[in-house]
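Late entry, evening session. Most of the bench is empty. Finally got around to the prediction I had been postponing all week. Sequence below, unchanged from the version circulated by S.P.
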Amino acid sequence: MRKNSNQTKSRIVESAWKLFYQYGYENTTIDDIAEASQTSKGTFYHYFDSKDDLLGSISYLFDKKYEELEESMDPALDPIEKLIVMNHEMFLMIENTVSVTLLSRLFGSQLTTRGERHLLNPDRTYYKLLRAIAVEGKEKGMFSEDLSVNDITKAYAIYERAIMYDWCISDGNYSICQYAEKMLPHFLAGLQSK
């Protein structure tokens, strides 16, 4: 039953964000979301209090992408290469499916949202994957001895949020994917052992 519930909620979230990207947040109604997700308005309200409540749900979409990456990523990659692949794939997805306006709203909503929808939720797939990569990198001696697994995980997450935030306040006037590809090696060099 829980799996079906999660699938229904995921379907609503995925449908909503596709509609938001295609038609804009303001032009998308709850009826549109219910129809696109093949659910009812009642089902929508079972999971979300309002359309605004969906703004924090993008972490579900991000985590779905991270789950796909975790399954498809070449296990032979070293931890640094894994972080580069994760960053590239996520920012490519953002650039192609999440409007700057919606991402900006998300950041605004995260200032007041708490609980499972929050981008900082340590139980998210994102953080679990980052921690696993940081542990692997520490075990292989790739990351600085001065940094804990938590330091590495937090610093990487802050780096990615900073790139997304800057992209938002710059109104998306550059490729987030290309800029991150250019800057990530420099950031990661600061985490690595000398």
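Two things to note before I forget:
The radius of gyration is 18 Å.
The chain has a mean pLDDT of 88.
Will write this up properly tomorrow.
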